[in-house]
Design brief:
There is one protein chain. Helix content is about 60%, strand content about 0%. The chain is built from 7 helices and no strands. The mean pLDDT is about 90.
Length: about 140
C-alpha cells in the first residue's frame, strides 16, 4: 500500500499571529494598563522584555513603531493577566492593586515581583495562576 500526500490546510501552526494593527492596539492598551497598575517606567520596560526607556517614552506619547514578536507575546500574556483579574474582582481597583500585594501562592512575593524577574515564563506563571483561581 502506498501513502498518498494530502493538501495542506490553512488551519494549524502560525495562524494565530498578532498582526501589526493588533500589536499597536495592544501597545496602547498596555500603556493604559500599566498606568492603572501604577508601574514605574523601569518596571514597564522590564515587563516588556527590556524595552528601552526612550521607546517606552515614545509609546506613552502614542508613537508606536515596529513591535517585535516577543513583545507582542508579552503584551498578549499581560492582557491575559488583566482579564483574569477582571473576572476575579468585581471592583477594578482591587484587581489593579492585587498586582502589588504580597501573595502566599508566590511565597509572599507579589505578582509584580514574579513578573519582574523578566522571563516570559514568569508572566505565564502569573496568568496561569489566575486562570487556575478561576477554575480554568
Amino acid at each position: 500500500m502506498r501513502l498518498q500526500s494530502i493538501d495542506a490546510t490553512s488551519a494549524g501552526y502560525g495562524t494565530d499571529r498578532i498582526t501589526d494593527e493588533e500589536a499597536r492596539a495592544l501597545a496602547r492598551t498596555t500603556v493604559n494598563l500599566f498606568a492603572k497598575w501604577g508601574l514605574r517606567d523601569a518596571e514597564a520596560c522590564t515587563l516588556l522584555g527590556e524595552m528601552s526607556t526612550s521607546t517606552w517614552a515614545r509609546w506613552k506619547r502614542g508613537e508606536i513603531g515596529e513591535i517585535p514578536r516577543d513583545r507582542r507575546s508579552r503584551m498578549a500574556i499581560l492582557m491575559g493577566v488583566h482579564k483574569g483579574l477582571h473576572y476575579l474582582f468585581r471592583e477594578p481597583q482591587r484587581g489593579y492593586g492585587w498586582v502589588r500585594k504580597a501573595n502566599a501562592a508566590f511565597g509572599g512575593a507579589s505578582a509584580l515581583d514574579i513578573m519582574l524577574r523578566g522571563e516570559i515564563t514568569d508572566l505565564l506563571d502569573v496568568r496561569d495562576y489566575l486562570a487556575a483561581e478561576r477554575g480554568l
